[in-house]
């Protein structure tokens, strides 16, 4: 998961030809998400119940839980993880890691901020304002970090759970989380893509010179 992408269908680079069953699943997920966003905009996250979401989406509460284990997951779940893995695996094997990451994150930011900017802003605002959403986001970071570690292991021949790989993978994921929180805390004024580039610069070069 990354908050930079809107919680919709897969990003264009990974969008396959889907069968009827998968299209129905996407339609249901989208209806649940749309209902959730509408209710949250009207009455806030805490006041919005799964029963209300189900009624507005015209599904049962059990269907909501079948697609999203918690209410927080409706806000946080996206398709970034498989997109990230596919894009990184497609990059040249000898390309520096941070160059590969810049490529992937540029595409993710462009999609997230152009496809559904209002949804992206709502999601990131909830990550800052709602403790349960923020806590669930922290939990999901481990999943993204593990997947990134697997891709790094494949490309470098290192064990995915080795110390160096784990530190690097979680540094990247943690940095992205801080980019998202900073962007939302500052009312989305900054250019998100520029913030991501700055974060990757810090990872690559360390802190820039500044006042003590």
Structure description:
By secondary structure, this protein is mostly helical. It contains 10 helices and no strands. Helix 7 (117-129) packs across helix 8. The radius of gyration is 18 Å and the shape is globular. The model has no long low-confidence stretch (mean pLDDT 89).
Which structural class fits the helix and strand makeup?
mainly alpha
- Shape, per Cα inertia axes: globular
Beta strand count: 0
Sketch the major β-sheet.
Answer: none
Write a compact overview of the structure shown:
The protein has helices at 20-43, 50-57, 61-67, 71-76, 80-90, 97-115, 117-129, 131-156, 163-185, 192-205. By secondary structure, the protein is mainly alpha-helical.
SSE layout and pairing:
Blueprint: H1 20-43, H2 50-57, H3 61-67, H4 71-76, H5 80-90, H6 97-115, H7 117-129, H8 131-156, H9 163-185, H10 192-205
Helix pairs in contact: 1-2, 2-3, 5-6, 5-8, 6-10, 7-8, 7-9, 8-9, 9-10
């Amino acid at each position: 998961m990354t908050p930079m992408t809107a919680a919709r269908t897969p990003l264009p680079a990974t969008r396959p030809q889907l069968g009827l069953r998968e299209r129905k699943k996407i339609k249901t997920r989208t209806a649940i998400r749309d209902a959730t966003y509408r209710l949250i905009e009207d009455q806030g996250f805490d006041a919005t119940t799964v029963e209300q979401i189900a009624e507005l989406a015209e599904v049962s509460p059990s269907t909501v839980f079948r697609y999203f284990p918690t209410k927080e997951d409706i806000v946080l779940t996206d398709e970034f993880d498989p997109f990230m893995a596919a894009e990184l695996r497609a990059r040249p094997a000898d390309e520096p890691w941070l160059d590969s990451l810049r490529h992937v994150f540029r595409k993710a930011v462009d999609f997230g901020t152009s496809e559904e900017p209002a949804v992206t802003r709502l999601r990131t605002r909830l990550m800052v304002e709602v403790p349960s959403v923020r806590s669930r986001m922290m939990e999901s970071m481990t999943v993204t970090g593990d997947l990134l570690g697997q891709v790094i292991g494949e490309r470098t021949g290192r064990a995915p759970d080795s110390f160096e790989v784990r530190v690097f993978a979680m540094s990247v994921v943690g940095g992205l989380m801080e980019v998202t929180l900073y962007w939302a805390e500052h009312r989305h004024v900054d250019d998100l893509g520029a913030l991501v580039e700055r974060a990757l610069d810090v990872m690559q070069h360390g802190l820039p010179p500044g006042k003590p």
